[in-house]
Amino acid sequence: MEKETISDQLKALGEDSREYARLHLELLKLELTENTARIFATITTLIVLIGFGFFALLFIAILLWFVCLHITGSFIWASVIIAILYIILGFLVFVFRKKWILNPLINVLSGIIRRMEKKGADNGE
Question: In the predicted model, what is the mean pLDDT of residues 59-68?
Answer without folding.
Answer: 94
